[in-house]
Amino acid sequence: MYNVKRVMALLLAIVALGTSAQQTQAAMIGSPLPLRGMVEKIRFSEPTLAPMAYIMFCMRYADECKPKPRARMVFRGGATRLTKQRMADLIEVNASVNRSIAPQRNERGLAGEEWLINPARGDCNDYAVSKRHELLARGWPMRNLLLSEVVTSWGEHHLVLVVRAQGGDVVLDNLNAQIRNWSQARYRWVRMQTPASPDRWAALAQAGV
What we know:
This protein is of the alpha+beta class and about 210 residues long. The chain has one domain: C8orf32 fold (Roll), CATH 3.10.620. Helix content is about 30%, strand content about 20%. The chain has 5 helices and 9 strands. The protein has a 7-stranded antiparallel β-sheet with strand order 1-9-8-4-5-6-7, with helices on one face. A two-stranded parallel ribbon has the order 2-3. The N and C termini lie far apart (about 30 Å). InterPro entries: Transglutaminase-like_Cys_pept (IPR010319).
C-alpha cells in the first residue's frame, strides 16, 4: 500500500519532470500550482440539473454515460488508489489530450455548444470529456471521473475533469499543465457529476466554506 502523502509528492515530481514546452502549448495559461500535502474532497450541496450540453453528449455517446457492469465489479468501494500506473495514466492522458486538440473557442454560445471526444479542434468541454474517455478506456471507474462546471476569475464558464483519488480530488484542466489539488484551482465551483451516477449532478460547496 502506498502512503498517501508520498504518493501525492511523487505525483507532483513526475508532473514537473514530464511537462515539456511542447506538452503545455495547447490552450494552457497561468502559473502551474503544485500539489501540496493532503488534498481534500469536493463537498456537494443540493442536487441540481445536468447541463443541457451533457444531455446531448449522452445522446451522442451513450456508452460514456452508463457504468459498465464489469467496472462495478472490479472497482468496488470509494476513491481510486494512486498506484504508479494510475499516476502515469493521469500524467499521460492530461498531456496527450492537451497536446492533441487545438484550442478553438465556441462563438455560438450555449445553443451551439457541443461536447466532442477527441476532435481536431475544440474548447474546454472537448478537453474534459476526451480525458474522461481516455481514462475510462484504461479501466478507471466511471464513478471517480467527474465532469465539473466552474467559473474562471474572468467570469467565463469552464469545464474540467475532477478525479476522485484516495487522499482527495485533483483536477485535469486544459488551462493548466499541472494536475492540481481542486482547491488550488482558483475557480468558483458550480456543479459536478456525483459518484453515485454520471447522470446525477449536484451543486458544490466552495473551498473554505
